[in-house]
Amino acid sequence: MRDQNEARDPPGPPAADRGWFQQRPQRIAGSPPLGPQRREMPISPPSRSRTSSPALTSRPASSWSSAGAPSADPDCSVCRGAGHYLYDVPYGHPHFGQLQRCQCLEAAQVAARQAVLATRAAALTTQLQAELGRLQHCTLERFDPHRPLPGSVEWDGKAYTPAEQRKSLLWAYSVARQYEPVESLYIHGSYGSGKSHLAAGILHSLAARGVAGRYGSAPALLRLVRQGFRDGSADDRLEALMTVPLLVIDDLGTEHESGWSEASLFDLINIRYLNDRATIFTSNDPVEAHRDERIITRINGTAQIVTLVAFDHRRLGHVAESA
Ligand SMILES: [Zn+2]
User: Fold this and answer.
1) What does the pLDDT look like over 97-139, one tens digit per residue?
2) How far is the CA of 118 from the centre of ligand 1 (A)?
3) Strands 84-87, 58-60: parallel, antiparallel or unpaired by DSSP?
């Protein structure tokens, strides 16, 4: 049970100070200017009908709202739309002359920030969906770490039992759910284990929080840059991939072997590394299997390595049919 007095008394100066508020406000030289027509505020205690208003007689300060900025509630019983108010206390009181920000203005600012974030998140998600293609439905919510695991899977010279696969699924899933784009991630493991799904799911959940991310398989990203040679936009395209807050390079190791591909891929990974930007790699190969020693060094030096070995989810339907 809450204390009755506590429940009745909204936040404000201690009860001992309440006597101050029965005095008529005085405009004291040096105090912040008051808004026109708001100088002569009533001194009677404010209505208790609105629980959000503090039990203080207050004088609204001049309105600071400007065009486009979140504005205070014109019907607010505390500030009457000014957004700020002053306590009616005489000179010498600790609250004298202290401009108070009204709760209604703070609420409006929070709502405005949320609206901006929602708009940004929607735009990022739309852009991401186009880039994800067949993975556009791969959210973390749709990832099932408890899916059936009908048999052993061999990867990198080792056979993984269903119990070991379950462990790796649960671990990879929990890493993905807790992922923050401050570190890189290297998810390697067997074909069809769900690596790309997890990477796409991370992009989705970060886009919903307003964090921009881009996705492409290593060959597709290189193709994207190469296509820019036609109109001279290759450098801009590479730059965009270098600077996006989060980049997913899916299927690392499946790109064509060529001097240009290798150099461009290393540039991309290296510049992101040097600028502390997070990259999520997925690969069917262990880190050491990659050709470029410099890429191995960059990944080993910065990325959390997650092994995801699990029965190919795309084959599960066939197993069920034949069983
Ligand atoms: Zn207000």
Assistant:
1) 999 999 999 999 999 999 999 999 888 888 888 889 889 999 9
2) 25
3) antiparallel
Distance 77 CA to ligand 1 centre (A): 7
pLDDT at position 248: 97
Helix, strand, coil tally for the chain in percent (to 5): 40, 15, 45
**Stretches in the chain below the pLDDT threshold 70:** 1-68, 317-323
CA–CA gap between residue 184 and residue 244 (Å, rounded): 13
Q: Taking the domain 137-322, which CATH number applies? A: 3.40.50.300
- Whole-number Å distance, alpha carbon 82 to ligand 1 midpoint, is 7
> What was the pLDDT predicted at 64?
43
Task: From 62, 95, 91, 94, select the one nearest 79 (Cα to Cα).
Answer: 62
Domain borders along the chain are: 1-116, 137-322
Distance 78 CA to ligand 1 centre (A): 5
Look up the pTM and report it.
0.70
Q: Which residue, among 187, 188, 191, 253, has the nearest Cα to 222 in the 3D structure?
A: 253
Ligand 1 centre to CA of 103 (Å) is 6
Residue matched to tokens 């599960």: 316
Distance of CA 18 from the midpoint of ligand 1 (Å): 21
pLDDT of residue 58: 52
Q: In what order do the strands lie in the sheet with 84-87?
A: 58-60, 84-87, 100-101
Distance from Cα 44 to the centre of ligand 1, integer Å: 18
CA distance 246 to 211: 8
- 262 alpha carbon – ligand 1 mean position (Å): 60
